[in-house]
Design brief:
The protein is mostly helical. It is 43% helix and 0% strand. The protein contains 3 helices and no strands. It has helices at 9-16, 20-30, 33-43. It starts with 8 loop residues before the first helix and ends in a 26-residue tail after the last helix. InterPro entries: CHP03643. This is TIGR03643 family protein.
Length: 69
């Protein structure tokens, strides 16, 4: 869930009782150092990872070409 950009830290906390710092520690211990740095760079300040910063309603993400039938 932490790797997915659209899953907020609040959802991870609710389901696994891990706050944002706990998720960072878990990711640091689970990933290679270069992968952890890339992940941190990607999610740092990202609005989708913090519910308070989201400017859209939470819903299911669908690709623009999904279910074109």
């Amino acid at each position: 869930m932490a790797w997915e950009d659209r899953t907020p830290f609040d959802a991870i906390n609710e389901q696994f009782n891990l706050n944002e710092q706990g998720v960072k520690e878990l990711m640091r211990s689970s990933l290679k150092p270069s992968s952890y740095k890339l992940w941190r760079k990607r999610v740092q300040g990202r609005a989708t990872k913090h519910l308070a910063k989201r400017s859209f309603s939470v819903g299911r993400h669908r690709s623009h070409d999904q279910n074109k039938h």
